[in-house]
Amino acid sequence: MTVQEPSSTSTHVIRKKITGHVGFSNLPNQVRRKSVKEGFRLTVMVVGESGLGKSTLINTLFNSTVCAPREPLHPAAERPKTVAVENIEADIEENGVRLRLNVVDTPGFGDFVDNGESCNPILETIEQRFDAYLSQEHRVRRAKIVDTRVHACIYFIQPTGHSLKQIDIEFMRRLHNKVNLIPVIAKADTMTDEEIFDFKERILSDLAFNGICIFQAAIYEDEDEESVAEAEEVARAIPFAVVGSDRAARTPDGRVVRGRTYPWGVVEVDNPAHCDFGKLRQMLVRTNLEDLREHTNQVLYENWRTEKLLAMGIAQDLTVFEEISPAERLREERIIHQAKLAKMEAAMKDVFREKVELQEEKLKQSEVELYARHKEMKDALSKQWTQLMEKKKQLESGSPDARKKTFRS
Ligand code: GTP
């Protein structure tokens, strides 16, 4: 039996109550089966000053040694001049579900006297990955697009207890519309609960004051009460105060946990009463992984793509829901191709100009040398000429004895 509700708009929405079994309620299972087969791909970037526990936290999050600890630089070794960008790939499997994890580490961030330039290599990496995705979208065969875009950036804030530093604000301000920012208070075991509470308030007000948007964990009201309450608790805990440890510790009551041992007891990484590590993991991999990927694709990438194409002179009148016509796509491809050619041509012209300038410089140099040699020879000749004239005069005016003397000399 079906009941059809008339729609007031020109597009007719047909709502039907179906009594018999059709079978599309099985769709979520189909999606799940397909996703499980293909596995998931997640790219997480970690940014923060050296020694704030980035590698440890990633290893704790994925319960395996994804990032090996970095050897400290020898005091005599030359210091890098810019932030490096390192890519670490790991395949993790849990209950038959595969996760291809990509960690983008950024050693050197905040290590320089002038940290103004620290953001540039990171921003470039994010945009290069957008670019790579855009190129794949414009390929003739698009069946296997590999998504290497950064889905989340965990930004480590030093546990100072004061407010955000200039470098924190600068970084987040420049990146918040390119990547899902997840700020965390590093090494939260070095602060008391009250200090963490106050610090979180100050960070949130600094973020709001500077117009910085961070990733908000979505709350799905249609889920069961417990899940909604859990999601609300996670959202309230941002910025997460985290503790990392990839070592086992024994608690006074004899339990073996992941934690950090102190003379007064053990800080348990997975204990929600001790830190927000569990909430970060919950958001990142358990409940919001798909939201992170979706927001990257539909908002951050889409905005970047629109801006990029508009800058290239392609008017984007279509809404995201409209299908782009093949002719329009071809036009976009042609413009992108022409822009690439123009870029290559400009680069080649630059190289050519540099070579011509070098050659001109060499020619100028030889001209100067030639002129100097010419002058030297001319001077020598005129000196010789003067001497000869002297002798001639002596010969013409002198006695025979003097002439003989002149000849001899
Ligand atoms: P770089 O690779 O130099 O950028 O350092 P990093 O940020 O990756 O830090 P790493 O994970 O190597 O940790 C640096 C030191 O801090 C190590 O001695 C860790 O054991 C320690 N550490 C890591 N996490 C925590 C934490 O949550 N609390 C405390 N107290 N120490 C931590």
UniProtKB/TrEMBL annotation:
Keyword Cell cycle: yes
Gene Ontology MF, one: GTP binding
Keywords, ordered alphabetically: Cell cycle, Cell division, Coiled coil, GTP-binding, Nucleotide-binding
A single Gene Ontology CC term: cell cortex
Pfam families named among the record's database cross-references: Septin
Coiled coil region boundaries: 327-369
Name of the protein described by the UniProt record: Cell division control protein CDC3
Species, as recorded: Mycena maculata
Lineage, uppermost ranks: Eukaryota, Fungi, Dikarya, Basidiomycota, Agaricomycotina
